[in-house]
Specification:
Blueprint lengths: L1 H12 L21 E4 L7 E2 L2 E4 L3 E4 L11 E10 L2 E9 L17 E6 L5 E3 L4 E2 L4 H18 L5 H35 L2 E5 L3 H4 L6 E2 L5 E2 L3 H14 L1 H15 L3 E5 L23 E3 L5 E3 H13 L10 H13 L1
Parallel strand pairs: 7-10, 10-13
Antiparallel strand pairs: 1-5, 2-3, 3-4, 5-6, 7-8, 8-9, 11-12, 14-15
Helix pairs in contact: 2-3, 3-6
This protein binds zinc ion (ZN).
Zinc ion (ZN) binds next to loops.
Length: 332
């Protein structure tokens, strides 16, 4: 505990190894600590259905899968989750050399993937997967449970029990989602050796739109309400975790590669003729003077593949940007 508090303060004062400073540590009550770590644990601590921890002694547990042979147990972490206590073991494997997968992407062995709005993923092979609405299905149930809880007195037993139910429902949703993510990752990796995904900063996408004002001072729709719905399904989808952890992890195991691509311009250009076709967030269909007509997300997926394979999109600046630059220069 002391080590953790010390770490929190040094992150606040000095920052982490990159010098990035965290916020001021808040007080955390005993209920907000959910994990205990054992930085060193005996390699022979696991015996059938028992595990031995320093200080705690021998404890019965359920082993979900057998420990692989030839690996040494180094660390253990006990975590309290909504449905019980879990132990995570860190194993060391000295025998495996670090594999570097070196596959050259080509037109045939690669796939472009656009993630996000209408579809969870849309691919350059013209397929797309919609998101099952796990969270929204359970949302009504969750809302009912939460309002019932809020009517109970603070600190009462009934309230505590309802809190547990809410936590369990959240856990169920998270697990459904995770399993679905793994299934989709496998499906995508079956299709190609190199997957191009957009390097997306979800925090940017979740930022609020600037208010837009008309000439007579009235406020015009700025697309925020459409985006709010978007933000919600983003939180639901867990897309960043999928693209930055689950997919690369699965790819590594399969000896395949996930490459992040700068998505700049991939929604505003035509995948066939590469000309610029500006769209609002609400335009779901891409149709171009060259005859291209397809879903916006599929168009982006094809472009992401092209950018990944080395095509450069020339982005013309809007005239208003040029004006701004000129005026800045005159001020300087
Ligand atoms: Zn076109």
């Amino acid at each position: 505990m002391v080590k953790r508090v010390d770490l929190a303060f040094s992150r606040y004062i000095k920052g982490d190894k990159n010098g990035k400073r965290s916020g001021k540590p808040r007080f955390k009550g005993k209920n907000r600590y959910r994990t205990i770590g054992f930085p060193s644990i005996k390699p022979d601590c696991v015996n059938n259905n028992h595990i031995t921890f320093p200080k705690l002694g021998n404890i019965k547990f359920i082993q979900h899968r057998p420990l692989p042979d030839g690996l040494t147990i180094k660390r253990a972490l006990i975590t309290q989750k909504a449905d019980g206590l879990y132990v995570t073991l860190t194993l060391e494997d000295k025998s495996v050399p670090s594999l570097t997968v070196d596959i050259q992407p080509t037109e045939e062995n690669s796939l472009g993937i656009d993630s996000g709005l209408e579809f969870f993923v849309a691919c350059s092979d013209l397929t797309a997967v919609k998101l099952p609405k796990f969270y929204r299905q359970s949302e009504d149930k969750l809302a009912k449970l939460q309002s019932k809880r809020d009517r109970r007195k603070l600190g009462s037993k009934a309230r505590r029990k309802l809190n547990q139910k809410v936590a369990k429902l959240h856990q169920k949703i998270a697990r459904q989602r995770k399993q679905w993510h793994y299934e989709i990752a496998n499906q995508l990796l079956d299709k190609a050796d190199v997957l191009f995904v957009e390097d997306l900063k979800v925090s940017n996408m979740s930022r609020r739109n600037q208010p837009k004002q008309g000439e007579n001072g009235t406020f015009l729709p700025n697309g925020q309400s459409a985006k709010s719905g978007l933000n919600k399904s983003f939180a639901d989808a867990g897309i960043s975790g999928f693209l930055s952890e689950i997919l690369p992890g699965k790819a590594e195991k399969a000896g395949k590669k996930v490459v992040k691509v700068n998505p700049k311009g991939t929604s505003q250009h035509c995948a066939i003729c590469l000309n610029r076709v500006p769209k609002e967030l609400s335009d779901r269909w891409h149709s171009c003077a060259c005859g291209a007509s397809m879903s916006r997300d599929i168009n982006s997926a094809i472009l992401i593949k092209k950018v990944g394979l080395g095509v450069r999109l020339t982005i013309k600046r809007k005239s208003s940007d040029n004006k701004k630059r000129r005026s800045q220069r005159s001020v300087a």
